Structure prediction request, 131 residues.
Amino acid sequence: MPGPTVAVAADYFRSYSVVGLLAAVGVLFVAVAFGASRLLRPVVPTPEKLLTYECGVDPVGEGWAHTQVRYYVYAFLYVIFAVDSVFLFPWATVFAAPGYGATTLVEMFVFLGFLAVGLLYAYKKGVLSWT
Prediction:
């Protein structure tokens, strides 16, 4: 006779079977959409269609271009701090819950300390100076 543990495990896996079924339906939907587009689209290759398209201008010269790394560094720093700021919102809701105040506060200051060290490192390396 199955015990209560088996029943709990069955309910647990049943809830994940719904997720698996939804994922399978999603993959099937995408596969059908790609297959239908492949069957229904016209295929008429011409030299103009096979030419590389770049902002409406015919490509001239080499494909290599010199770009400055600092733009990527600024974008990378922005992404880091934007993602980290997203973590502040759940922290604020947990901090408001009773019994989690001091622990959550210490953990968040450790987290913000790591961010501050990373920002200080970037500043000392001269990454943040725009010249």
